[in-house]
Design a protein that fits this description.
heterodimer, A: mainly alpha, Four Helix Bundle (Hemerythrin (Met), subunit A), B: about 90 residues, 2 domains, 3 helices
Chain lengths: ~200, ~90
């Protein structure tokens, strides 16, 4: 196996480098997936039927909390990868677990928000606007939930094995996924919530 | 301790918080639709770049030409999907 020591651990073998490239290709497909959901939302956002519109149900406080939680978890995820490159396992574990806890808190606020909407009579079946809203937010939330399971498994593996070509590569790829979810959230925050409240 | 918080990451984080607050201005200030959307689009685009270049290290790999091409292509397809949908379903043509 050819190992290039001039690169960070996660790129050193050709297989690892290809895995990172492959994950970027997947993220390209994810960009298109979320674009279709945004396109549906932008088409249907004012088709509220007899249900409430965005201005009536959106609340700024939980949305700001979600934004802050996800931005911070993206930051700590970046710090975790930085510690990994320095070869420091303990700081990595700390930053990585903070990332997952913040992700869990994000998901908690989002679920609370959904429950509030449904309590106000704004369910997925109420109007085309709410269908497209729940599908867009739900797809993002499902990605975060999947990321938490993935990150949890990864944390156990790295706690057990430390950093090697395999685990470093997985941690780096997880960080790409996590930062990507933050980018998607920025667009939801701007073009669903802020635009809706404008 | 200091080496755990590289200045590039801290700056990226502070910058993305500032951009979120700037974007928030559209809710509190009485802006026209075009002005508001311009602010939102600019902030979102810059935030995306912060994540891409500062946190995701897109430019550091040996395959960066392929990465930029892939992301540019995905963004192109995404934008065509969104604006093509708006064009056919909302704006129309005459």
């Amino acid at each position: 196996m050819k190992i290039d020591h001039s690169l960070p651990l996660e790129y050193q073998t050709e297989e690892n480098s290809n895995r990172v490239l492959g994950f970027w290709l997947f993220l390209g497909a994810e960009i298109v997936l979320f674009s279709t959901l945004f396109a549906v939302y932008f088409t249907l956002w004012n088709r509220t039927g007899s249900g409430p519109d965005g201005r009536e149900i959106f609340e700024l406080a939980p949305v700001l909390a979600e934004t802050f939680l996800l931005l911070t978890s993206s930051f700590t995820c970046g710090l975790a990868v930085h510690s990994m490159r320095l070869g420091l396992k303990k700081p990595f574990m700390v930053f990585f677990l903070i990332t997952l806890v913040l992700g869990l808190a994000f998901l908690g606020v989002e679920i609370f928000e959904f429950v509030t909407y449904v309590g106000e009579g704004a369910t997925m079946q109420t109007s085309a606007f709410l269908s497209s809203l729940f599908v867009l937010l739900g797809t993002h939330g499902a990605h975060v939930a999947l990321g938490l399971l993935w990150g949890g498994g990864l944390a156990i593996q790295i706690a057990r094995e430390g950093f090697n070509h395999g685990t470093a590569n997985k941690a780096f790829i997880f960080s790409l996924y996590w930062h990507f979810l933050d980018v998607v959230w920025i667009f939801i925050f701007s073009f669903v919530y802020l635009k809706g409240l404008m | 301790m200091k080496q755990l918080f590289p200045i590039k990451h801290v700056m990226g984080y502070v910058f993305s918080l500032i951009l979120s607050v700037v974007a928030l201005a559209v809710v509190f200030w009485d802006l026209s639709f075009v002005m508001g959307m311009t602010i939102l689009l600019a902030c979102a685009a810059i935030q995306m770049s912060v994540q891409l270049f500062m946190f995701m290290h897109i430019g550091e790999n040996g395959t960066k030409g392929a990465l930029y091409t892939n992301i540019a292509y995905a963004l192109f397809v995404g934008l065509v999907t969104v604006f093509g949908t708006l064009f056919t379903m909302i704006w129309g043509y005459r």
